[in-house]
Each structure stands twice: as C-alpha cells, then as structure tokens.
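Retry 2 of 3 after timeout on previous attempt. Resubmitting structure tokens to design endpoint.
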C-alpha cells in the first residue's frame, strides 16, 4: 500500500519484503537510493541492522532513514535515532503523514550537490577522487583517476589515444601513445568484476561501454 501510494506521487520505490532482500537492493542500486523507509520488525535481518549497513555504506551512508514501526516504546525510538535514523513514525500512520515526512527530509538533500557518478556497480566521487566497486574502495593513481573521470563525465564519447594523452601529459611532452594502453589495462584490472565498463573501440580509441551504462 505504501509503495503504491508513493509511486502514484511520482516516487520510484524499491520494495524488499525481508531484510536480506533489502541488503541486496542496497548493494545493487547504490547511488540510486535517496531515502530509506524501514520497519524494525522484518523477517531475517531486522531494520536496525539494515540501518547500520546503510550508515557504513560508502555511497548512501548519509541518506535520510525513517523507521516506520508498530513498536512505539521510548527506548526503541531512542535506539533507532542512536543508530542514525532521521525520523521515527509509529504505525498506524496515515499515508499522507509519511509522505510529508519523506518530502521534508528529501528537501534537506540537495541532489545538485552530489559528487557521485554511478555506472553499474561502480561509483566515482569527483570531490574526493575515489572509486568504489561495490563497497570496496579502489586505489587509483592520479593519471588513472583523470582518465576515468573523463570517461564517466562523458559516457557517450569515444576518446582517441591523442585526446587522452593531452589530458594526462600536462607539461610532460615525452609521453607515448602506448602509455594510454598501459593505463587502460591497469584500470580494467582495478575495476575487477566491472572491467568491461571500459571498451576499446577499434580504430577510434577508448570510452565507456554503452551496453553497460544507461546513457
């Protein structure tokens, strides 16, 4: 009922019927999640543990979290807030009330300030210059980051070796074409399971694999 009501009000809702499924959605959707509405008493992993996992997550660790539960004892509310929840609503609660709380919390989150770029299971933070594959942070050299940022910011572009060289060479004019190939190879190794995000376009150069990204 809650999911249907929110979808009718132009929200995209990801529904989990038990805790393990919620954790899978968190891993798979990552940066697409902007708020979590959690029930404490759910099968499997409970809402409190899900909240803990959200707060530890490198990408969605600061999203608003609302506990919606039939348990209304003061100690439960305090514990939920101590875990990092932003709001606590006791059931039964009207759908309009929940929607109002959601809207209030989302207004505090300005999407224009987001520094994350997400493709598939990877997230690139253009402020801290960090790459995550799933929950794992991947160490990048300055040159590797520069190439990856170029691709992520322009996912439809294919860059020739020369264009990439101009981005990474700086004042150093003694950089060879094949240097780009080495950096691309290293990036693919570091991307691991997401290595196919970088595609070689024969006779043209390199860019993101358009079959793997939503562009």
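Retry 2 succeeded. Sequence:
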């Amino acid at each position: 009922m809650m999911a249907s009501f929110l979808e009718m009000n132009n929200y995209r809702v990801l529904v989990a019927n038990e805790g393990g499924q919620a954790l899978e959605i968190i891993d798979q959707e990552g940066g697409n999640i902007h708020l979590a509405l959690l029930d404490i008493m759910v099968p499997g992993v409970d809402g409190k543990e899900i909240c803990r996992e959200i707060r530890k997550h490198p990408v969605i660790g600061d999203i608003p979290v609302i506990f919606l539960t039939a348990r209304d004892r003061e100690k439960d509310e305090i514990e939920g807030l101590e875990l990092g929840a932003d709001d606590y609503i006791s059931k039964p609660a009207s759908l309009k009330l929940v929607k109002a709380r959601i809207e209030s919390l989302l207004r505090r989150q300005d999407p224009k300030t987001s520094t994350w770029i997400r493709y598939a299971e990877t997230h690139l933070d253009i402020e801290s210059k960090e790459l995550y594959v799933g929950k794992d942070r991947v160490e990048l050299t300055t040159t590797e980051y520069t190439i990856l940022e170029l691709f992520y910011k322009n996912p439809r572009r294919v860059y020739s070796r020369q264009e990439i060289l101009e981005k990474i060479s700086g004042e150093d004019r003694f950089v060879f074409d094949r240097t780009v190939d080495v950096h691309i190879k290293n990036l693919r190794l570091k991307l691991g399971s997401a290595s196919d995000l970088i595609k070689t376009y024969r006779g043209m150069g390199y860019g993101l694999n358009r079959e793997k990204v939503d562009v």
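Attempt log closed. The CA atoms of residues 37 and 166 lie 47 Å apart.
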